[in-house]
Design brief:
The complex is a heterodimer.
Chain A (H helix, E strand, L loop, with lengths): L3 H17 L5 H20 L9 H11 L1 H12 L3 H25 L35
Helix pairs in contact in A: 1-2, 1-3
Chain B lengths: L9 H15 L7 H11 L8 H13 L3 E5 L2 H6 L6 E5 L1 H26 L3
Antiparallel strand pairs in B: 1-2
The chains are: A mainly alpha, B mainly alpha.
């Protein structure tokens, strides 16, 4: 009874299960994947279940409707393990260093006082007047 | 869905009630697909309970101590050439929860019936 569409729907479900259980505790991941595998197998061989809806649609429907619960389940179990803790510590340290740096940059800097102004009394002689223009040449009359 | 601590969601109650029903039929242990099918028999839905919803509810019930589970003997699965089943059993606590739920539902329906019959 395995149709191409059913195989595709089952493959999609397997890929999704592998995705949302990715990097989870191996025991949890394996348990969920094996349960889905067993459920698919039982459904495939249960002729009575296929009377209402096509098997592929049935699997797709159950898969899509269950996505929010899959994600909630994943979120509920994602906090366990060293990796998320390490990421959280790294993020916290980065934020702290960045805050300290910004506070340091924003602080008004204390410059040394400028030296007192000195008055220069210099006598500047006015510049000499420009020389008179040369006489016009004789041939120009 | 938010819940009060210790309270059960409708699906969780349905699983417990149907697990007791299966036990009365002589089925002490059931697997995920089996309980989904039994729960589905009561509803008019064309689909069985979604994968994510079902296995999350089963895990929650186990965590609450209403169900117990274990992997079946791998030799049996290998002999029958199929994937191994995770087998669930309802605990005494689960049976009590199912019984309480049944009583609550019965009380509610009898109150409704009385209200309907009472003169205005």
């Amino acid at each position: 009874m395995t149709s191409g569409l059913f195989t595709c729907a089952a493959a999609l479900l397997r890929v999704w299960t592998a995705l949302y259980t990715w990097r989870m505790q191996p025991a949890l991941r394996e348990r969920r994947q094996r349960e889905i595998e067993s459920d698919l197998w039982e459904f495939e061989r249960d002729a009575a279940a296929h009377r209402r809806l096509s098997p592929a649609l049935h699997v797709l429907g159950r898969f899509v409707i269950g996505i929010p619960d899959d994600l909630l389940w994943r979120t509920a179990h994602a906090t366990v393990g060293p990796r998320p803790r390490m990421i959280a510590w790294t993020a916290a340290a980065t934020i702290l260093i960045a805050t300290l740096w910004v506070v340091d940059v924003m602080r008004p800097s204390q410059l040394p006082n400028p030296a007192p102004l000195t008055r220069f009394d210099l006598d500047f002689a006015p510049p000499p007047p420009p020389p008179p223009p040369p006489p016009p040449p004789l041939g120009a009359r | 869905m938010r819940r009060k601590p210790g309270s059960l969601l409708p699906l969780e109650l349905a699983i417990c009630v149907n697990a007791v029903r299966l036990k009365h039929r002589g089925v002490d242990e059931f697997h995920g697909y089996e309980i989904a099918k039994t729960v589905g028999e009561d509803s008019d839905h064309r689909l069985l309970t979604a994968y994510g919803t079902l296995y999350r509810a089963l895990a929650r019930l186990e965590h609450m101590g209403l169900l117990r589970s274990h992997w079946e003997d791998p030799h049996i699965a290998a002999r029958e050439n199929r994937p191994g089943r995770r087998l669930y059993t309802i605990t005494a606590l689960g049976e009590t929860a199912a019984e309480d739920a049944r009583k609550t539902v019965a009380n509610r329906s009898s109150k409704r019936a009385r209200r309907r019959l009472a003169p205005a």
